[in-house]
Amino acid sequence: MDARFDYAGNPVAAKAAKYFVSASRAVSDSTLPATTQELVQLRVSQINGCAVCVDMHTKQAAHAGESPVRLNLVAAWREAAVFSDAERAALELAEQGTRIADGGGVTDEVWAHAAKHYDEDQLAALVSLVAVMNAWNRMNVITRQPATGDFQPGQWE
Questions:
Q1: pLDDT tens digits, 95-126
Q2: Cα–Cα distance, 81 to 101 (Å, whole number)
Q3: pTM of the entire structure?
Q4: What's the CATH code of the domain at 76?
Q5: Is 149 within the bounds of a domain?
Q6: What are the tens digits of pLDDT across the range 41-64?
Q7: pLDDT confidence of 156, banded at 50, 70, 90?
Q8: How many domains are contained in the chain?
Q9: Helix, strand, coil proportions of the chain in percent (round to 5)?
Q10: Would you tell me how many other CB atoms lie within 10 Å of the CB of residue 26?
Q11: How far apart are CA 125 and CA 32, in angstroms?
Q12: Does residue 150 fall inside a structural domain?
């Protein structure tokens, strides 16, 4: 599969990507646990079918020390006993925030569950992360960016 265009080489798309990178940095610099960030990025990308991001975030998480077992079970996190209550809350919020057209948004119950585990700044980071990942996924899927499998952890830092 060939990309429809190289958005890094297009001035408008490159400028938008620059802002996405800035938003991503605000989240990565937050107190939201790095493990949670990677799990959420991976799950959102799985839902959206963004192969580039699935490749990237699986490798980034593994490089940061995440276990293959947990990475393999992210797609089935509800049935997996390897995630903490806090991670489950983040994954549920990420799923509902990604599938807003399917269910009307994030329920009060899911928000309250996340708020039991994360402070206000971490919730802000989590919401921002879901929004930014959805934006990245859409740019990649719409322009058909191929996953070549050659991503190396840290290459975009």
A1: 999 999 887 899 999 999 999 999 999 999 99
A2: 29
A3: 0.92
A4: 1.20.1290.10
A5: no
A6: 999 999 999 999 999 899 999 998
A7: low
A8: 1
A9: 70, 0, 30
A10: 13
A11: 7
A12: no
